Amino acid sequence: MMGLSLVLVLPSVRVGLAAEDESVQHFKMLSDVEYTGKSQFKNLVEVLFTVRKQPLSDDNVQYFISTNGFDLVGDDPNSGQQFSFKELSFVINRKTRQLSETSKDLAFLEKVSNQCVRSIKEVTNKNVGKTWKQSFDLSPLGNSLPSEVKLTLTAVKLKTKVFGEMILVRALSEPFVIKTTKTSSDTGSIQSRINAVYLFDPRIEEIYLSISVFEATTTINGFKERFRHELATYKSDAAGVPADLSGLDKSFEKLVRKVGLTRKSLKVVEESPLPQWARSEGLGAAQLANICAAVACEGALNPVTTICIPAGRTVALQSFGKSASVGALGTVSSSLAKSIPGLGTMKIAVAPAFMGVGLGTAGAAAGGATAIAAGAGGGGGGSRGEGRSSVASP
Buried-most residue among 1, 17, 75, 233 (CB within 10 A)? Predict the structure, then answer.
């Protein structure tokens, strides 16, 4: 009551509190991890993230990311704390755009993010209305990751009823190959690709919606296997109510469909944990690819990292069976259509038969050796089948 009285009486205090509110943002994240082979794995979660920004000296900004959906820090499944409020934190220098002061949980993501920033060549806000190429040199990260990721980007202006003009940027990657250990003396190939789209404000400083589809396929075990990660994040209020994107037209629908969201949920016939290659190479490549696509779409490093960091940790927890599914959601595309005003009548997904990320052949791109997701944590953990268990959405 005393705080409310001060706001009503003193205009300067009201301004100060407004500035503080602007440093806190909320995002709802939908993350779907799937595997198909001779058996199936599906884990889809919906989580509300809170992002706080705190200016520091020397052009540094510290970010704090928390969620009430699951524990972002640490991987102890026996802790007995299903809901915790531990935070991930890191510092970004606004001049160098480098990420620093991360915890061990973020070491892998920090390395990838900083290398992507070093490789960025194009500034997105100077390419609106154009299509351009962006490649990321990942060779300094070592042989455990693909040496390069190449993307084709398209940026267009769109209009919404509530927020007016916005900028949509889409990234479609060329196939890239990762090597995995097949036997003690042999290696196999995993073909991978990432497609993503980001909806920004006109200055490309705020994210309102992001969607990405990562897919990896292999036949190293003598049959076709597929690891897939669909991810969507949208701006919301503290209760998870999404921003109103009404007014987006068919051009938005056409651009997003190329990303390859599926409109039909995977049916789990024979449930199993993820195979080893999916929990190591697949997971590492998914984390890396999402960071590459995000940095390329923004062409800078301001709000994008607030999306990439929790996304990387979320898929790690899901892949190791440490985040319970919300089976009622079905698919990422159906949840977006139901939740976000303006998307309900749009066909932003594709038929299940269309892979969404046509992988091409192994010879289409150069690869590295075994990808190790350093930030993923250890341990086996069982799978979570669709509808088998659930957690309440925040």
Answer: 233
2-11 per-position pLDDT tens digit: 332 222 232 3
Is residue 166 within 8 A of residue 208, CB to CB? The reply is yes
pTM of this prediction exceeds 0.90: no
Give how far Cα 324 sits from Cα of 231, 249, 327, 391, Å: 16, 35, 9, 6
Cα–Cα distance between 34 and 226 in angstroms, integer?
Answer: 8
Q: Which helix (H) or strand (E) holds 289?
A: helix 283-298
For the stretch 244-283, pLDDT in tens is: 999 999 999 999 999 999 988 888 888 888 898 998 888 8
Dihedral through CA 249, CA 251, CA 257, CA 258, nearest 10? -160
Q: Which of 35-39, 294-298, 306-310, 378-382 has the lowest mean pLDDT?
A: 378-382
Q: What angle do CA 266, 267, 268 make, to 5 degrees?
A: 110
Q: What is the dihedral of CA 64, 70, 71, 77, to 10 degrees?
A: -170
Mutual orientation of helices 107-119 and 283-298 as an angle, nearest 10°? 40
